[in-house]
Structure formats: structure tokens, C-alpha cells
Amino acid sequence: MKRTEVTVRRPKKEETFQIEEFMRVVLVDTYRKEQIDEKIYDLQEELASKRAYLASYFESGGEDRYFLVAVSGNNIVGTMEFGKQSALLKELTKGELKEVPEMGTAFVHPDHQGQGIATTLLEELKRELRRRGIREFCLDSGYQRAQRIWKKKFGSPRYTFENYWAEGVSHEIWIVKI
Length: 178
Fold this sequence. Notes:
Elements: E1 7-9, H1 16-34, H2 43-60, E2 65-72, E3 75-83, H3 87-92, E4 102-108, H4 117-131, E5 136-141, H5 144-154, E6 159-166, E7 169-177
Antiparallel strand pairs: 1-2, 2-3, 3-4, 5-7, 6-7
């Protein structure tokens, strides 16, 4: 597979629509590949949460949520961000992780997956976390394909909630030292 050359940078406000459309494409593809029933797991709700994260990035100048995009030519082909933990993560861990930031919105366009884009984004994100004096982050996933990737990258999750989303579909949480 030919590797896509990307530039990783912070997003621009005028790219909001393009980024939101990119996230929709990735989530629709993920739901299809994971065989997720949109009637049960609301795609629009998932998109709304990602839009809110992006809006928070622009409103706070990257302080509340810090976003990165991977760009190839004029196309957004990847995103990744970190910020305060989601309510779900706090609930599942019973607050045990307290102030550990959460990495999320780790999306790569379906046509560019498996080409190292997420790894490139992750390395840039780690640099920013270190710059801020942060030495660990957490991430969670209920998507089985993503869970396999995170297990290869970070090992076994710290928390596993069996049958959380449906029979045979767990939710997993990792703590990653930088």
C-alpha cells in the first residue's frame, strides 16, 4: 500500500466544515465495518460530541481541547485531540484517573488507514503533552477494530467492561505513559 505523505498541524477555523464532514465519513465507515446499528448507537450524538470538542478547541485556543489534523494536499485525512475526560470515562473508572487527560477523536480516513497517519498524529500529540508537563493520558474505545490497534500499540487495557455495548462488545480503557 502506498504511504500517504501528510503534514500534521493545528486546524484552522475556516476548516470546520471540512473537518466535521471528515469525521462524519470516518464514523459512518466505522459503524458499517463494526456492524453498529445507528438506531441503537446514535451516530448523530457521536458526531455532535466530536463537533463540540472541535468547537471547544477553537473557543479556548487549544487550552481546553487540543486538536491536530493530518493533511494530504488539500484534504484532511486524520484527526486526534486531547482534553478533559468524557463523562463516560469518568463514570466507568469511578473517577480513579482524576485529572489524567483523555486522547480521542483518533480518526483516519478509510482510504488512508494502515499508513502510519495515526502514529504520526500520536507522536505530535505526545510532544504537546510533554511540553505541557503531562506524562500520561488515557484513551477508551468501544470499537473492536480500534481496540485491536490500541492493544498492539499500548498492550492490554487497564479496564475492560465486557458486554458493555452489546453481547460480546466490550468497552476498554488504556492508561499510556509518555
